[in-house]
Amino acid sequence: MAATPAYRHAVRLEDVSMAYGNVVALRNVNFEVGANEIVGLVGDNGAGKSTLIKLITGVQRATGGRLYIRDQYIPWSDYSVRRAHELRIETVYQEKSLGEKQPLWRNFFAGRQIVNRWGFIDVKKEKEIANKILLETIGFRGAGIDADATVSKLSGGERQGVAIGRAMHFDADLIVLDEPTVALALKEVRKVLDFIERIRSSGRACIYIEHNLAHVHELADRLVVIDRGEIVSNIGRGEMSLHQLTDHLLSLQAKKERAA
Amino acid sequence: MTAAAQHGGRPAKPPRPLAARLLATEGVPILLVLVVILIALMILAPNAFLGWRTYVSVMINYQPQIICVLGLTLVIAAGDIDLSFPSIVTLTSLIFAAFYRFDNVFWLSWLAEGHSPEEIKMLQAQYCWLGVIAAMGVGALAGFINGALVAWVGIPSIIATLATAFIWRGMAVFLAGGKQFALRDFNQTDLWAITTGRLFTDLFRTGDVVLRKPDGIPIQAVIVLALAVLLWFILNRHRFGESLLFIGDNANVARVVGIDVKATRIKLFTLMGALAGLAGMFLTMETENFTTTQGQGMLLVVIAAVFIGGTSIFGGSGTIVGSYIGLLIVVMLQIGMVALGLGGDIADMVIGVVFLAAVILHMLVERPERLKGLGFGNR
Measured between CB atoms, does B317 come within 8 Å of chain A? Predict the structure, then answer.
């Protein structure tokens, strides 16, 4: 499984900018994730983390700059969520990537159903695979949750598990985790962190957004600090202790307040 | 952990009793409601409800409404609404009628120039086939414009389709030259025979009187039933239907899982327009008449039927079976009240109460927590 990928970067952004009307969300950002690298993305609310993720996952298109996936140039006009899926980029959003009223089997396959040539869904097969993911990948053994359960009946941790299980099933080269441990119980947090370790050991890449500095510091190969739409520092693994990291972020905060 | 789960099987669920499983089957609870209403009406108004005449009459007269109720189910499941479909029905009624009575509308009358009445009659039987294409096409185009206003311009569907409702209706009256007209002898054409003719007429013959249109199962009813089956599969088993459910559930979720929300909504409104076009055409085919108010009474009845049927008022789920039966409930109540000598005013009040009761019931099932806001429970 841990074969060395044939490319250097899972994703690379070159001089990317993003503006919503007059509001600049990202300014000339250069950002890359190695083929087997766990990158922690750190920054205040509104610093531009979410925008960066939306660009990488195809939800939005940048207003400037270039995108490379597995070292291949991809024009923004040719990029979408569906294209990202095809290029094996999976995303786990904080709580908002599941259809509440829909059964789990629909949620696993929404946007890329198993269909016949007329577009009709192979429900039996989808349910079969969904049940397999639930049991084997996520480990919902005996929890009474099966492919027919609707999302609204699940706890926060179970939902996150479903979203992560989905990402794992589709065998991504790059998995984007947007605050995956928000609103989770401690035991469930551990599961998510174990999952990130598995991404690393299976030779894949991960972008990991997290408010909890202890978690990113423990897991990430590299920390990227983003502030007011710009990347302000790149911190390699072991370059800073958790304590130093906290101080570093606080000093950035203080600088910003002085400037304001 | 159950033994089944330990052996890698599905997590075992306690088997549910047959009655519970039946009640959880789509359409069964609402079918029971219809049956109860029919039994009550059979007891209260046996003259109208014990013979077959009322039921055949419903089959003959309500297919356009059923088509609209099926289409609107998809629209409401996707969290949208279309208020313009009755006007599209009027418009496409006229378009179809115009291709049969081309001698009678100002924009097609040139087709009739220089032809004798006999020749015109022959041409009518041919041009009415063009009318089929034109009515469906105009319906789809009107729906596409609705969809473009909603998805591209970003106007909420309730506003956009309210506005276009005026446009389509005005256009219908304009293109009709303000006139109403009959489609004389349309029931002698091949087109009538294959779309609107009657089946099993021998079963319904009474005495030796041969009616101009004998009683029987109208072919429209068979076509619409097939359409209902197709739309059930589209909503529940097709990629497009699943996209609608996710959009109705939460458009942002739909977007991040890779559904093209704008394109899907445009397709949805285009489909609704085409269905309204079919409804308009069927209406004219059955009545063999065009009036400028044709279809205008449908709006409230059809919307009520969708919600009585159990389609979610919040979007994200919809039931084709429920809507079909929901419309029958509304229609039977209307006919029943009249048969009881109570008139349309009482029927309207009863339908309103049934509508409310149904919506509250479905809310209870779907989102129990909502009722807290109404003073039930504690919050």
Answer: yes
- ipTM for the predicted complex comes to 0.82
C-alpha to C-alpha distance for A219 and A237, rounded to whole angstroms: 9
In this prediction, residue A141 has a pLDDT band, given cuts at 50, 70 and 90, of low
pLDDT at residue B172 is higher than 70: yes
Q: What is the pTM of this model?
A: 0.87
- Domain edges within chain B: 28-363
C-beta separation of B256 from A60 below 8 A: no
Interface of A with B (CB under 8 A): 57-59, 80-82, 84-85, 91, 93, 96-102, 106, 110-113, 115, 118-121, 123, 131, 135, 140-146
- Domain spans, chain A: 9-97+175-259
Residues on chain A touching B11 (C-beta within 8 angstroms): 135, 140-146
Start-end of H helices in chain A: 49-56, 81-86, 104-109, 123-132, 156-169, 186-201, 213-219, 242-259
**The residue to which tokens 């006999």 are assigned:** B118
The closest of B43, B359, B228 to B351, measured between CA atoms, is: B359
Q: Is B129 exposed, middle or buried (0-12, 13-18, 19+ CB in 10 A)?
A: middle
- CA-nearest of B181, B166, B144, B160 to B86 is B166
- Is domain A9-97+175-259 annotated with CATH 3.90.1150.10? no
Mean pLDDT of B184-207: 85
What is the spatial distance between Cα B156 and Cα A111, in angstroms, rounded to a whole number?
24
B78 touches chain A (CB under 8 A): no
Distance set, CA B59 to CA A58, A223, B54, B106 (Å): 50, 69, 9, 34
pLDDT at B234 over 90: yes
In angstroms, the CA B266 to CA B255 distance is: 15
